[in-house]
Structures are given as C-alpha cells and as structure tokens.
Amino acid sequence: MTDQDRQEATTVAPPPYASDALAEGTVDVVVIGGGAAGLNGALILARSRRSVVVIDSGSPRNAPAEAMHGFIVLDGTPPFEILRRGREQVRQYGGRVVFGEVASAESAAPSADGDLRFTVTLADGRRITARRILVATGLTDVLPQVPGLAEHWGHGVVHCPYCHGWEVRDEPIGILATGPASVGHAYLFRQLTEDLTYFTHGTELDEDSRARFAARGIRVIDTPVTEVVGDEDGALAGVRLADGRVVARRVLAVTPRMEARTRGLEGLGLQVQDLPNHMGRGVASGTAGSTEVPGVWVAGNATDPVAQVGASAAAGALAGDYINRMLATADTDAAVRGSH
C-alpha cells in the first residue's frame, strides 16, 4: 500500500446521494470531479445551455472537516452541505451529476466536422463521449508516517491557518515540520497563539530562522517526534519524542505533501509538475486552467494546491467560461463549413 493509498483510506466516507443517469451520445463537457471547482464550472456551462456531466467519486479533500471557512456567506457551512447545494444547482439548469470513479480518459477520433472528442470510461464499464473535459479532481494530502497522526487529521491535526486557525486560536499549537514550507507555516500560526512549538522532525532549520523564531517566542525542538498522543476522550493531547518525553499540545499543524489526483487520467497526457518547496505535484496549467492538451482544462486543487474553496470555485467558473467560448467558436466554424 502506498502513502497515498494509506491517506485515502482515512478519508471519511461521504453520505450517499442520488446519482443521475449517464448521458447517452456526445455531451459538450465532462467534468471530472464534483467539488467546488468542478461544480462551479459545471454551473457556468449548464447556465450557458451546454450539456454537461459531472463525474463525482464522492471523496472531497475536505471530507474530514466539520465546516468550511474563509468563504463569505458560506463560512461555517459543513463541506457536504455545500456539495449537496452545488449538485442541486447544477441539476437545476439541466446538468447531470453521476456518482462514479473514472477508470480512463483519452482522446478519441474527431467528429465529422473535425471537432475534438474524448472518451471517458468509468470503473463499472460505462462510457461517455465529450467534446471537452474539465479536470477538477483535487488532490490527496499525504501525511508524514507518524503513528497517531492520521487519526486526528481534520480535527487536532490541521494544515491551513485560514481554514482552521480561528477555531484553534490561543491553544498550545505545534508545528510538525515537513520541509522548507513549514517555516512560513509557523509564522502564520504564531499570529493565532502565543504558545507555539516547532518540531524540526529531521528537517533543516537554519540559524537565521532560529533567531527569528526566538524573537517571536517560538520554541524549537530538534528531537524527532515518534508518536501523536491522544487523551482519554480521543482528542489530541501531545506528541511523544524519541527520548520518551511527551510535549503537551492540543493542535498540530502539518504541511502535507500534496499530490494531484490523476489516477485514471494517464491517457490524456497531462503534464504533472513539481510544486515549490518539495510540497508535491500538480497538473501544469495556463490561462483559465488551459493545459497543453487541446480541449482539456484543469481547475482547483489539482493544479493549485493552496486554493481554498472560494478560489477553487472561482477557478472552475473561469475555466467554464473559457470552455464555453471555445465551444462557441467550434460551433460557428462548423456552421460556416456547413454553409459552403
């Protein structure tokens, strides 16, 4: 089992929802991924009277979280409630949301008028043909292999000061370092508490950073962390070090390795690139989420790992706009050819 498989195994199973039937024939757009980016892209397209099908595996990145924060109006709303509303709104304009896992996606023979075609096959063997594809599969957070860490993910173990920071303010917080990005992480969480401890956990921390930490009252511990310890109620209580000491903490902040979810999409030939500071890998994209593969766009955490719900939704909307524009051009080109 890979690290990614282990992390995906800890994802909270979503509540079931009614799946639409997979559309027959060729649709304008297949959206792969039913999170904020995918649903908002589908909404823009459906409102433009495009036939759109969202393929949703039901495993959003923020599934373990009790509420989503940092998005005006919807702040504090449970993630599954946001997705439920999103599915309803896409369906309101004729879009379909199909529960399923994509097994493969690849280019197909172009149409008679030369327009692009793609074939998407689901794990159960069903297939659908589309003129364009929007990849909004999100990412997987791969946590350090520290016993007890994954069990507290999304609760006592957090990653984003904007998503979870207010809720953990003034608590004794620990930063479990995973690399260079953890240094900046520490300054952001220091804004939220005066009791902050930085566990280097085998990563390098230069003297300048140590001096800056000292100036901000951030304690540094170089002894490796061997275990995350819970209390009798199951809440995070602290970390055990390699020398046997237990350092009491109510919250651990971790910068996980972030891996774009591209399983089943290999046939598209998308370019996957390394993220800055060894943070993981994401799908390369250009203007409005365009990719090097004609007819394929990407939006949300699959290409922008630090995007919160609002930013991912905005990226989906922008990609949907550009896809609609490209389809409008293709429709017009086909009409001109047909008139001669």
Structural overview:
It is a single chain. The protein is an alpha/beta fold and 340 residues long. The protein folds into two domains: 220 residues, FAD/NAD(P)-binding domain, CATH 3.50.50; 111 residues, FAD/NAD(P)-binding domain (3-Layer(bba) Sandwich), CATH 3.50.50. 25% of the residues lie in helices and 25% in strands. The chain contains seven helices and 19 strands. Strands 1, 2, 3, 4, 5, 6 and 19 form a seven-stranded mixed β-sheet that branches. The protein has a five-stranded parallel β-sheet with strand order 8-15-9-10-11, covered by helices on one side. It has a four-stranded mixed β-sheet with strand order 7-16-18-17. Helix 3 links the parallel strand 2 and strand 3. Helix 2 runs parallel beside helix 3 and helix 2 runs parallel beside helix 7. The N terminus is likely disordered.
